[in-house]
Amino acid sequence: MADDLINDENAGIERLLEIMRRLRDPQTGCPWDIEQDFASIAPYTIEEAYEVADAIARSDWTELEGELGDLLLQSVYHAQMGAEAGHFTFQSVVRNISNKMVARHPHVFGDESREKSAEQQTADWEAIKAAERAGKAQGGALDGVAVGLPALLRAHKLQKRAARVGFDWPDTSDVIAKITEEAAELVEARDTLSQTEVEEEFGDLLFVMANLGRHLGVEPEAALRRTNTKFIRRFEGVEERLAALGKTAADSDLAEMDALWDAVKEAEKAKPANG
What we know:
CATH topology of the largest domain: Helix Hairpins
Radius of gyration: 25 Å
Distance between the termini: 54 Å
CATH class of the largest domain: Mainly Alpha
Oligomer: single chain
Structural class: mainly alpha
Largest sheet: none
């Protein structure tokens, strides 16, 4: 009967749950899958989430379908391990998130009016989340910001939390002034202090840069991802122009590559927006 389920392409989530159960079976499962635990699988979960984001950034919807499946598998994997340890089950995970979504949207599933501004709905959402944290004995303003988040994203979230309780610069110009101060301290550290102290000052500068992003309405992790993509595109353009000259980057020098970089930038600016 179980094999019928595994071979039924239309069986949906029940098929995937059974596949994972079989993979983890201590007697007949896959040795690699049997050996895994929450900690060993967590890096794969993070990686799959980034691959979903990458497919979205490239507007590759066929790829996104596959990546969403990979990410779903991660949830199923953790749920199976949770069931084996007696912590939770896939059904309890689904019930938990369903209850949370209903509770956090009283204007959709309850009696509250939907006639609210986006700002008011955001404020209501944060109030509900704050009440949830209080129920978990998370009384501090920064409690519950996941340690495993990418550092720039976590900095952004920590600063948002602090700002809600009034710990924030009132104006963007204050943040820019702080960036100037931190940059000067980094230069001083580079010239006079240890590598550990240089790293600390560099972290301080990144933290304030993330804060500037928040004040400007820019999510720093997303902005840096886009810049990484732009850098790759432009550097590949430099390599293509060098190849047309019969050269590689190793055969070139900084002056030549810098000139080609500027040419690639100008070509991008001249390209029609819909091109």
